[in-house]
Write a structure and sequence with these properties.
The chain has a single domain, classed as PH-domain like. The chain is 28% helix and 23% strand. It is built from six helices and nine strands, in the order H-E-H-E-E-E-E-H-H-E-E-H-H-E-E. The protein has a four-stranded antiparallel beta sheet. Strands 5-6-7 form a three-stranded antiparallel beta sheet, covered by helices on one side.
């Protein structure tokens, strides 16, 4: 679990691009007749975890840049100590092939407007308590990951950064995979006398090479091999 936690958090340290729509939503203020009739403005939001893992830096850009912004280029930041919860509508199971194929690929700099609009249906919302309203939980930041993989990395990365359990199938599959490899590695270190209660056992008899030249055959489980 520690290995997977570090991997997920490093995804946050690397930063990520998220399509961001202004004009609607909880970060755009109250919904009025004017805001309903106004066409939303689409742009991009880049989010990155600070090196000390205490702040989440972000900024909005008109276009997705080829060179990823540095922390100094990200004017806004969230102190993770005030974060109270991370909620999302990301499914715990991976999407079907038809659904995933319609999403904009993660490494595509600029998808179509239709793809960017559909990707905003997936949300990760970070809640916390602001100094101005300490008794009321507020929305600090909302992310719209474009793919299920990106959503899994950021949702579980944020949860694990807050010492909570991951919830997506991708991360749990990775945990089980790493755990399986760890078990196999530990089994390779089991000594032949480990089942003797810690006592010293006679080593197994090994065949000698006496009387053999360099070209001979031996049989293991019905399979022939040369030595």
């Amino acid at each position: 679990m520690a290995f997977v936690k570090e991997q997920r958090i490093r995804c946050l340290l690397a930063g990520g691009w998220f399509p961001h729509t202004t004009g609607h939503g909880p970060e755009s203020g109250p919904v009025t007749k004017a805001t309903v009739n106004r066409s939303p403005q689409s742009n991009w939001r880049f989010v990155k975890l600070s090196h000390n893992r205490r702040y989440l830096h972000y900024a909005d850009f008109d276009t997705r840049k080829d060179a990823e912004p540095q922390l100094d280029d990200l004017a806004e930041k969230i102190d993770l100590s005030i974060v109270s919860s991370v909620v999302s509508n990301v499914s715990a199971s991976p999407p079907t092939t038809s659904a995933s194929s319609s999403a904009t690929p993660r490494d595509t700099p600029n998808g179509s407007a239709a793809n960017r609009a559909s990707s905003t249906s997936t949300r990760i919302t970070i809640h916390g308590y602001l100094a101005a309203t300490p008794s009321k939980e507020s929305v600090l930041l909302q992310l719209h990951p474009q793919t299920h993989t990106l959503a899994s990395e950021w949702l579980d990365g944020l949860l694990m950064l807050l010492n909570q359990q991951p919830i997506t199938a991708d991360t749990n599959k990775l945990v089980n995979l790493i755990g399986g490899y760890g078990l196999k590695i530990r089994l390779l270190n089991v000594r032949f006398d480990a089942g003797d209660g810690g006592g010293v056992a006679e080593p197994p008899l090994m065949p000698t090479r006496e009387g053999l030249d360099e070209d001979y055959w031996f049989d293991i489980g019905g399979m022939e091999a040369s030595a």
